[in-house]
Every structure is written in structure tokens, then in C-alpha cells.
Write a structure and sequence with these properties.
By secondary structure, the protein is α/β, with parallel strands linked by helices. It is built from 3 helices and 6 strands.
């Protein structure tokens, strides 16, 4: 989106708050493969350090009856930044015990759905459905950015949980 202020043209960034999206009809996901009837969902971002770690923590809490959550990255950072733990603690959740790992580390595991938070994977790798839910990476941008990303990730995870609950 572009705005004009006087004679100077200024790029206006998109709103940091997740837009209200209509819940799409999800025909691309079948019944859950997990033995207890829950979907096996991997939240993916580039480094598996911030967005996907937040999503995994939210999904474990908000979707525990609907899904089994994990997270991964294309190029794992190797650690979860302290700012992620701080932002999640403010929301009453913990990322303790979660680790930065590669998507390839999950090979051989049953995965029903990949939720791509960074636009880093092509749709349907190995026949696995991919839902694109792009979220801005807060890495290196300060505590306010981590809080904002946390809040957007929560909205996205809530939408995923609702969609999967309706698919069962």
C-alpha cells in the first residue's frame, strides 16, 4: 500500500495485526492419521526460532484436543531466542523443552498438515497439505516486535484449530 505525504512518496507497511480472515473450507486435508484422532501439525518457518516456536506453544495449549503440534525450520537457527520465551511467558505459556530443528528431522513421522508461517515451502511437499499463513519474523527487532508477532501467531493458530475442529 502506498501513500502520498506532500511530495514525498512513502511506503506504508501492512498492518502488524492479523486481518480477520474468513475460515476457508478445507477440502485438502483428510481424516487425522494420529491414533488418538488428532491431526499431526507441523508449524514451519525459516529458522524454527521464533514464529513456529510460538505457534507450537499456542497449538499445544489451544488445540490439544484437535492436534498434536510440533515445529520445524528450513534452516534451523539452533536455539530459541530468549525474547521468544519472554513474550510467551507474558501470554502465560512456555517454550521450555522446545528446540530449533529442521523439517528434515521429521522425516518418517506421520504429518497431516504443514502450516507455513514464512512462505518457505512449496505446496504439498510429499503430498502433505500446506496452509500458508505468513507472519512477520521478529528476530532482531526488539521486544515490541516479538509481542506483536506473538499476538498475530495466536490469531493464526486459533484459526487453524477452528478449521481442523470443523474438519473432524
Amino acid at each position: 500500500m502506498r501513500s502520498w505525504f506532500g511530495r514525498k512518496r512513502v511506503e506504508v507497511p501492512p498492518s502488524p495485526v492479523a486481518p480477520k480472515r474468513p475460515e476457508p473450507v478445507r477440502e485438502d486435508i483428510g481424516p487425522p492419521a494420529h491414533p488418538d484422532g488428532r491431526y499431526r501439525v507441523v508449524f514451519l518457518c525459516f529458522a524454527n526460532a521464533c514464529r513456529s516456536q510460538m505457534a507450537e506453544a499456542f497449538a499445544r495449549e489451544l488445540g490439544k484436543d484437535v492436534l498434536v503440534a510440533s515445529s520445524a525450520g528450513v534452516e534451523p537457527l539452533g536455539y530459541v531466542p530468549d525474547e521468544v520465551g519472554d513474550a510467551m511467558a507474558e501470554a502465560g505459556l512456555s517454550v521450555e523443552g522446545q528446540a530449533s530443528k529442521a523439517l528434515s528431522d521429521l522425516e518418517g513421522e506421520q504429518i497431516d498438515l504443514i502450516v507455513d508461517l514464512a512462505g518457505v515451502v512449496e505446496p504439498r511437499p510429499g503430498g502433505i497439505p500446506v496452509w500458508q499463513r505468513r507472519v512477520v519474523d521478529p528476530f532482531g527487532r526488539g521486544k515490541a516486535a516479538f509481542r506483536m508477532t506473538r499476538d498475530v501467531v495466536r490469531v493464526e493458530v486459533e484459526g487453524v484449530v477452528r478449521a481442523l475442529a470443523a474438519s473432524r
